[in-house]
C-alpha cells in the first residue's frame, strides 16, 4: 500500500532556511518508507518488514591441486543479498596449513632428514611417506655433510597450469651429534681411526 507520509512518491520535500530571507526546498528520501513509496501492511515476523532475513548458506569450495599460496577463488553473486541490490562476491584466499614434515615454497617441497654420525659417514637408506601416500626412497653412500641438500625432481607439488608436471622435493640433511661426552677410550679410538 502507498506510504501515507510521502503519498507513494518515496520523497518528501523539506524547506531549509539558508539565511534570513532565503529558503530552499530540498527533496529527500522518505524516512518512513525508506524511499520506496510503499508501506508494508502486514509485517513479516521473520524479517520484521526489512524483506531480508539472516541465514547461513554452505558453499562448496573446489581446490584444484597445485594452487599457489594466497590464490583467491571468487564465487560471483554468492555474497549477502538485499532487495534492489546486486549481491556481492564471496572471495576465498588459500593458505597452506602447517605440516610436521614438509614446507612449501612455490611448487617445491622442502624437508629435513636427521642423520646419526654413523649414517653421515657411511651412508643410509630411508623411506619417507609423501603427502599423497606414495613412499620416497632415499639412499646415499659415503659421507653426507651437515646441511647438504639433495633435489628429487618431480616429487614436489603439482604445477597448477600443467597438472602432469610437479615441482621438486628438496631434502636438507641434518647431522645430529651425540649429546653425551665420549669416554677417554672412545676419544682415543676416534683419534686413532678417524
Explain how this protein is built:
With 194 residues, the chain is mainly beta. The protein folds into three domains: 1-46, no CATH class; 65-95, no CATH class; 103-175, Sandwich (HSP40/DNAj peptide-binding domain). Helices cover 8% and strands 31% of the residues. The protein is built from two helices and ten strands. It has helices at 117-122, 184-193, and strands at residues 11-19, 22-29, 72-75, 90-93, 103-105, 108-115, 123-129, 135-141, 149-152, 169-175. Strands 5-6-10-9 form a four-stranded mixed sheet. Strands 1-2 form a two-stranded antiparallel sheet. A hairpin with a 5-residue loop joins strand 7 and strand 8 (135-141). The longest helix is centred in the C-terminal third of the chain and has 10 residues, at 184-193. The chain is rod-shaped. The mean pLDDT is 88.
Question: What are its keywords?
Answer:
about 190 residues, 10 strands, HSP40/DNAj peptide-binding domain, rod-shaped, HSP40/DnaJ_pept-bd, 2 helices, mainly beta, HSP_DnaJ_Cys-rich_dom_sf, zinc-finger, DNJA1/2-like, unfolded protein binding, 4-stranded mixed β-sheet
Task: Determine Rg (CA atoms, Å).
Answer: 35 Å
Order of secondary-structure elements: EEEEEEHEEEEH
**Alpha-beta classification:** mainly beta
Separation, N- and C-terminal Cα atoms: 99 Å
Q: Residue ranges: pLDDT <50 for 5 or more in a row?
A: none
Strand content: 25-35%
The tally of domains stands at 3
Can you tell me the CATH class of the largest domain? Answer: Mainly Beta
Strand order of the largest sheet: 5-6-10-9
Q: Give me the CATH superfamily of the largest domain.
A: Urease metallochaperone UreE, N-terminal domain
Helix content: under 10%
**Tertiary shape:** rod-shaped
CATH topology of the largest domain: HSP40/DNAj peptide-binding domain
Q: How many strands in all?
A: 10
CATH architectural category of the largest domain: Sandwich
Largest sheet: 4 strands, mixed
Zinc finger (CR-type): 1-56
Keywords: Metal-binding, Repeat, Zinc, Zinc-finger
Organism: Strigomonas culicis
Pfam family, one: DnaJ_CXXCXGXG
